[in-house]
Structure formats: C-alpha cells, structure tokens
Amino acid sequence: MTPREHLRVAAAEYERFGTLATGLDPERLGRPTGLPGWRVADLVEHVRRAQLLEAAALGEPAPAAADDLRAARAAFARAVERLGDPDPTRPVELVGGVVVMEVAAPLIAAEAAIHVVDLARALGGPGGLGGSALASCAAALGPMLTFVGGLGAPEPEETSVELAGRLVDVRLRRTAGRWRPDRAPGPASVRFAGDDDHLVLLGFGRGGAERLTVTGDRLLATRFKTAFPGP
C-alpha cells in the first residue's frame, strides 16, 4: 500500500470511530475501556486530539473550532485530501519523533483502526480488524514495536522476537539496549505465528497469544506485554 492509501484508511477508520462515538449518553461515556484508567470519554478525547495533531503533521492548519470530534475528523480528512500523493521520504513529526511518510502513514492508520477496536469493545461490540485496516496495522507493526520496546522492561542482549503471518512479517533483536530489525539466520528466541489479526492485536497490546502458535522461549512469550507495552 502507498502512503496515500494508508492515510485514506486512517480517514475511513476515524469516520468509523466518529459514528460509534455519536450520541453516547453519560452511562456509555463513563464505561471503562481496555486501556488502564481510561473511560470511553477519555478515549474519545484522545482521538479528537490525535486527529488534530496528525492533521497538523500533514500540513493542515488547526480549525477555528476544533473542540469536538466532528471538527477534528473534518480537519484530518481535509489534510489527507489536500496532501494528494505524498513523497514517501517526506519527514513527518509524530508523537514518538520524526519519521518518513512511508512509515508515518501506516502508523497513523493503525492508531485510528486500533482505537476503533478499543471503542467497539468498550461498547460491547466484537472489536475486530479486517481488510485495509488490517493491512495498515500489519505495515505499522514493526516500527511501532521498535518504538514501544524502548519503553518496556529490558530483555537480555541478543534476545529476538518474531511475529509471522500472511501480512505480518516482523523480527526484532535486542542489540545495544534497543530493539532493531533482525534478519539474522536461525530461529528467533520466541516466535508467534498465526492469523494476522491476532498477531496485530498481540503486538498492539490488545490481545494475547492464546490463538497463536508459540515456539521457542515460553517464558519470554509470557513477558511479551512487558517488553512491548501496547500504545
């Protein structure tokens, strides 16, 4: 997928989020989410701010009235349409730092899609991934794990982790105190294999490994969420 395609996925997923969030009463806004300490209202506010920050990163000025989810969603959609077909090497400033557009676009789409899952689950829905949203999340998984791995509990040097599916193909090794892409020969310390949606939900901290095939270091597998705390 191109950066433009990923950004269009993001716009569509933010539209889905807005539809789910429309007309929520105080009871549903007060429900807990799967994110520790966050209620539905907190999640909605986070997504409102995220859309404005991402729109600004794509070059869209902040709207005069951006204090509601609909205005933020419109600003993000305008940013995507005005951007057209961006240069994949263009730098984009995200919360975690500056990355090139070909990395930023799937990360933005993945944030939108994962938060749709968060909201759907909090409201009693299935909260699954599929289609283009799953493809964007799979593309974002490696860069995202590299970043959040720096926030997690340290693992021994030369520890390696692999996630393998049809779309998901991520292998990381801890070297010099950081997780880095790894293409060394031989098996990883622990390998998770299975359906892409379960791999993505594991990687983003929204699911466990129960439906995946795990080989290698079982104790390391149980520490995955502490090594890679989901965003």
From TrEMBL:
It comes from the Bacteria. This is Uncharacterized protein (TIGR03083 family). Gene3D superfamilies: dinb family like domain (1.20.120.450). One of its GO terms (molecular function) is metal ion binding. Residues 11-56 form the Mycothiol-dependent maleylpyruvate isomerase metal-binding domain. It holds the Pfam family MDMPI_N.
